[in-house]
Amino acid sequence: MKVFYSNVCLKHAPKHEIISGNLIDYLESPSRLIKIKEYLDSLPIFDFVSPIDNGLDPILSVHPKDYVEYLQTAYDEWVNIGGNKDAGLYCSDLSCCITKDTWESAYESAQVVISAALELKRFVEESSEKEMNPLPGIFALCRPPGHHANSNVCSGYCFLNNAAISTNILKKDNKKVVILDIDYHHGNGTQDIFYLSSNPLYVSLHGSPDYPWFTGNESEKGEGEGEGFNVNIPLSKDTDDDEYLKKLKKVIYENINPYNADYLIVSLGVDTYKDDIIGGLQITSEGYKRMGELIKSINLPTLFVMEGGYHLETIGINVGNVLLGFNT
Ligand code: OKP
Ligand code: ZN
């Protein structure tokens, strides 16, 4: 399996964030990526590939220019004025610290995902039915993550919505896309971006009630043309492997398979892990293997996009297990 990866994603490294009024170490740290890379490197099936710079256009298909310019210039402007004005104009919470390196890493994170999406698309277009066995899967190992970023709002460690950007690439040529968001948190940014659209189908399983607090209800089903194409499955904290897999299986049968998509994008967070420090359902490392197997059963060319996961001791094996489950 090809893994798109770039060290430039490590540069964004704010020192602190504020959670519940307390100043703590920034949890969305570069070590997360390093740990995952180390683990995948130790297994023979993963090939690391560097992204190609595909420029701003794919990003601008999701994010307006004024927002992109804000991300590019806010840090310098803030330093120049001595730091008191408009710093948070496009931010919805205190977890999206913009440092001198943020734009570079957020841009690179998007480029990792764009390159992975283009590679998957090319592979599928060049393959005959026969070659689709084994099922093509590609992993975009990127940070900062994306699913809380709205078109012009950064929040929850996210600046550019990587899953949405890659959706717009895979949607080209009248293709249909499913986004399956298995991060612990509801992907409010992704939901919002496509709320009025029937393509992609957005499906999220997430812990509730929890961040981002005001979205992720089952009653949010999309609007207009998008009605029926947004599926939220809120889960209680005590959800274990069996319960999780049962719900995932149900949504695959009832919503994902009947949609008849051409591509699957998995917003891959492993913060559902039982000991995660921010999220945490009762999922075990073995559970991630089963999740990967179930995702494979959807039988679509699949782009895995890295989102959350904060338990550094197991983040590698948990991500690895989803991918291994898919690849068996
Ligand atoms: C990003 B991703 C917890 C505060 C959490 C932001 C969480 C963002 C998660 N009390 N602050 O979905 O993993
Ligand atoms: Zn999360």
Automatic annotation (TrEMBL):
Pfam families associated with the record: Hist_deacetyl
Signal peptide (from-to): none
One biological process term in Gene Ontology: epigenetic regulation of gene expression
Residue ranges constituting the Histone deacetylase domain according to the UniProt record: 28-320
Keyword NAD among UniProt keywords: no
UniProt KW keywords: Hydrolase, Metal-binding, Zinc
GO molecular function: histone deacetylase activity; hydrolase activity; metal ion binding
InterPro entries named in the record: HDACs (IPR000286), His_deacetylse_dom (IPR023801), His_deacetylse_dom_sf (IPR037138), Ureohydrolase_dom_sf (IPR023696)
Xref: CDD domains: HDAC_classII_APAH
Names of the cofactor(s): Zn(2+)
Family from the record: Belongs to the histone deacetylase family.
PANTHER family found in the cross-reference section: HISTONE DEACETYLASE 8 (PTHR10625:SF17), HISTONE DEACETYLASE HDAC1-RELATED (PTHR10625)
Protein name: Histone deacetylase domain-containing protein
Organism, as annotated: Rhizophagus clarus
